[in-house]
Recover the amino acids of this structure.
């Protein structure tokens, strides 16, 4: 690049769509203040941050003559998508046959995770995983490691190299799992503390204290997790809750004194802002109220919930209750890395409950709502001026079928909905991180 060019400034010309808030049930973007759609728009970026957004015809005239303009005619720029619950070590066991949660963990998950004591293996899988996220237009994720601290070092090293905003943590697990995967309350505390001090707040990386779920942690270990949160108030808490009926029954046996599964975490002071709980399917109204009052967020993982036969998450109900909700792929419990496909499954789950989920709501879940669930909406989730310029370019000709269907669409909602229901990584023509290209689809079918 020419060094005399206006320092670090560049602009992207395409149709641009982002959310300023919860769009509600509307299908008409023109009457919604929460949906901003700019046909032939321009996104201007300097030093990796958004500096301006508007109509290309107006803004182009104001740019310095040497500003680079990158064009994606008839394609759609959206904010980088946010996966609020995923397991990078499970990349190699995605799509494992036939089991529900507890047997699935024993049969497939624990043996796969045992390999992450080897840093070379962890590095290889972490690199693959992050590239797969980028191929799918995902630029931020909240990620489980394994019990091995090496798994988290490898993950953060790979994320740092790619300049990504990522949150991850070492699994805490001191009972009800194979010996080769067990830590202790003391080692879990010491290893997590060392990882927090090494990684939390470094570049774009953030740490999550990560007890796997209540059945695999003793009371002593849950207390240690609470101690870490007290000592490091701005780290995350990441775990699972109320995913599967047998799991819920098991927790009732293990913690007979607790009112509910969620209450186990509440008793150990693990629920607060920046706590993210995957699944939240089998919660009662008191639990939902507790989520709202503590500021904890739910990760809605519909591909996983269907794949594992876990149950149906009521997004519309949870949202009405005021619970923060993000979208999660839960790979390898989920069978896709794509948040487009995950949004499509969210639509179907919502249909099973007799409710609707518009394409704008799906996009909100995959972007700004995820950012709010992670308390990162001051930095990512949409294109407000000053935010980090992570984004994806959606191609309405990404597959022959999407292209054909788009020709029969009458408005933006119909076009976006059909793309979201039919799309996956083939519909992502490029992904940018801090305004720099991070993934480019090698061949796609024009417009
Ligand atoms: N509950 C405890 N561990 C896991 C896991 O690895 N995946 C899912 N989906 N649920 C869990
Ligand atoms: Zn999970």
């Amino acid at each position: 690049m020419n060094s005399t060019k206006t320092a670090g400034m560049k602009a992207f010309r395409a149709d641009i769509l982002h959310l300023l808030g919860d769009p509600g049930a509307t299908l008409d973007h023109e009457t919604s203040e929460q949906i901003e759609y700019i046909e032939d728009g321009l996104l201007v970026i300097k030093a990796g941050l958004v500096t301006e957004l508007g109509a290309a015809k107006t803004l182009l005239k104001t740019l310095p003559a040497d500003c680079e303009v990158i064009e994606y005619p008839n394609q759609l720029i959206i904010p980088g998508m946010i996966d609020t619950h995923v397991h990078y070590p499970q990349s190699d066991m995605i799509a494992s046959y036939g089991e529900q949660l507890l047997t699935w963990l024993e049969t497939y998950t624990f043996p796969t995770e045992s390999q992450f004591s080897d840093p070379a293996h962890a590095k290889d899988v972490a690199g693959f995983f992050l590239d797969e996220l980028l191929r799918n237009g995902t630029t931020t994720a909240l990620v489980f490691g394994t019990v091995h601290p090496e798994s988290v070092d490898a993950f953060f090293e790979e994320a740092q190299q790619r300049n990504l905003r990522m949150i991850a943590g070492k699994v805490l697990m001191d009972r009800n799992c194979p010996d080769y995967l067990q830590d202790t309350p003391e080692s879990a505390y010491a290893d997590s503390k060392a990882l927090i001090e090494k990684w939390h707040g470094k570049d774009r990386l953030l740490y999550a204290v990560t007890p796997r779920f209540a059945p695999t942690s003793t009371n002593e270990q849950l207390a240690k997790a609470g101690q870490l949160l007290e000592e490091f108030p701005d780290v995350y808490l990441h775990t699972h809750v109320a995913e599967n009926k047998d799991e819920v029954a098991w927790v009732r046996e293990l913690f007979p004194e607790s009112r509910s599964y969620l209450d186990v975490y509440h008793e150990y002071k693990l629920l607060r802002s920046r706590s993210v709980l995957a699944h939240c399917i089998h919660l009662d109204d008191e639990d939902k109220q507790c989520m709202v009052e503590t500021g904890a967020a739910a990760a809605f993982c519909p591909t996983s919930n269907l794949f594992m036969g876990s149950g149906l998450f009521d997004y519309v109900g949870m949202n009405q209750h005021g619970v923060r909700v993000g979208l999660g792929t839960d790979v390898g419990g989920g069978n896709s890395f794509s948040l487009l496909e995950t949004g499509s499954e969210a639509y179907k789950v919502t249909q099973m409950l007799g409710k609707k989920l518009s394409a704008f709501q799906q996009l909100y879940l995959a972007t700004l709502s995820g950012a709010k669930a992670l308390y990162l909406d001051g930095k990512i989730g949409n294109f407000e001026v000053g935010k980090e310029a992570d984004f994806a370019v959606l191609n309405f000709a990404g597959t022959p079928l999407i292209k054909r269907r788009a020709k029969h669409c009458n408005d933006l909602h119909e076009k976006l909905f059909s793309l979201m229901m039919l799309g996956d990584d083939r519909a992502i023509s490029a992904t940018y991180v801090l305004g720099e290209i991070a993934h480019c689809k090698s061949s796609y079918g024009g417009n």
Notes: The pocket of guanine (ligand 1) is lined by residues 87, 101, 105, 109, 212-213, 240, 243, 304, 330, 333 (CB under 6 Å). The chain has a mean pLDDT of 97. The chain has 16 helices and 16 strands.
